[in-house]
Model the fold of this input.
Amino acid sequence: MGCHSCVEVAKAKLQVVFTRDFLKLLVGGQILSLLICGTAITSQLLNSEHGINAPTAQSFLNYVLLTAVYCTQLCYRQGDNNFYNICRQRWWKYLLVALVDVEANYFVVKAYQYTTLTSVQLLDCITIPVVLLLSFVILKTKFFGNHVVGVVVCLIGVPLMIWADLRTGRSHSGGASDKLLGDMLCIVGASLYGVSNIAEEYAVRFYTRTEFLGLVGLFGSFICGIQLIIFEREELIKYEWSWQAILLLLGFAICLFSLYSLMPTIIRLSSAMAVNLSILTADIYSLLIGLFVFHYTFSFLYFLSFVTIVLGIVLYSLKKTGVVSSNDRYREFQNDDAQANDPEVNIEDDDVDKIHETARRCLNGDHDNEPEA
Done:
């Protein structure tokens, strides 16, 4: 009887942790990691096999795809929540977010030219404390003890990964022509990623996924295009574009486009913080694929790093984050007309209190106790 009771208690605890939403977050986060791995592998092949290093040009294709797919959907909307009215009301917000997003991509990719892989892996984690701080200050998210412990455990997995890189020699695969410059570029880029992630969480909570991706894609294409003409035009002309290089460039763009399209959905299931913890495993997937493509050396520490990161995600998910209950805090972010044209927003009443109540439930991750209409 005693053993049976222990089994039942353990089963009950596992059911509390491994809920459907948690499993969606875990699986979705690993899909995001695989997509990040795809961008890393294709980018590295472009550089090592074809001598092509054009981060702005690579990102430009992604923003063009976002514009083509999601701005087209916005243009077909009817009523006040169509493309014209969205741009008229808040175009400058998406312009700023797109600028931050474009430069985040550029700085981190550019950092690989000047510093080592180890430094990029370590400094790229700055995104996590930036997201943590902005979530607390701007979103007013309430964090509990399990969240702090979960973040710490996840971050322990990073030095384990770096230790494995040092033992296998993979950390020296990139040059360090100007390590200080490269490290600074990585710090700036990782911090901008944190700002972009919080802006994305705002948008998918209070506006719509389609709106965010369409407008960021539009303004991102504009910014990337100007930057490409200024900084990379001559380099693109001198490159020898074989069909293999073109396929790799398209592969990079498709992986990045899929990453951008899926990330808002995973953020809505959890938060920008949880997603950033989940994608810490991306370097491990890059290593596994690199075993066959670049003939990397495997180390058991990579597996230990992966298990540590997943354990941190589990600990982080033991208890949901909270949010302040004041309506005024979120009034500027609510969107009364989104429900009329986007199935992602299911609000059938213009009552402001109900709109904010829905927003607070989303931020708390409470999707199971929806009030009846």
Summary: Residues 325-360, 367-373 have pLDDT under 50 and may be disordered. The chain has one domain: 13-364. Residues 131 and 194 are 5 Å apart (CA to CA). Strands lie at 141-142, 322-323.
